[in-house]
Amino acid sequence: MAARVTYKRKHTYRTRSNQVRKLRTPGGKLTIQYTNKRNGLRVCGDTQVPLQGIPRSRNTEFRGLSKRSRTVSRPYGGSLSHEAVRHRIMRSFFNEELKVIKAGATATRKGKKKVGGKKK
Asked: How far is CA 96 from CA 46, 78, 82, 89, 116, in A?
C-alpha cells in the first residue's frame, strides 16, 4: 500500500509511541489503525533470563493484574529466576559454613596455646 494516509490524532511524527498500520475498510477506503507498543518480557534481576509464568504486559496493565498472575509461589518469585534463587541460597549456606570452619580453627588454635602455656 503505497498510498498516503493522514494521522487522526495531534501527534504527527512517526515515533515509537505513534505507530500505525494502514488498513483497508470494507468500503474500500484506506485508513490507519493505531497500534500499541509491544510488551516486553519480565526478566530476572540477576541473570537477565526471561521469567517463566509471568505474563507479558505493559507496566500499567501489569499493576492491574491479580497477585496470583504477577508472581510465582517461591521466595523472590516474579523478580528472580529459580536458578538465581538457588544460587543465592547456596552462596549464603557456604558463607555460613565458612564462618563455622573459621570459628572452629581459631578456637583450636587458642586451645592449643593455652594447653602449651600450662605445660611450661
From this structure: 22, 27, 21, 11, 30
Residue 23, SS3 per DSSP: strand
Residue 90, C-alpha cell as written in the block: 547456596
| Cα–Cα distance measured from residue 101 to residue 108, given in angstroms and rounded to the nearest whole number | 11
Mean pLDDT of 30-47: 92
C-alpha–C-alpha distance, residues 12 and 20, integer Å:
11
Q: On the CB side of 108, how many CA atoms lie within 13 Å of its CA?
A: 5
pLDDT tens, position by position, 76-95? 999 999 999 999 999 999 99
Integer Cα distance of 51 and 56 in angstroms:
10
DSSP string computed for 46-91: TT-PBPTT-----HHHHHHS-HHHH--SSTTBTTB-HHHHHHHHHH
Residue 77 contacts by C-beta under 8 Å, 6 or more apart in sequence? 71
Q: Which three cell numbers stand for residue 25?
A: 475498510
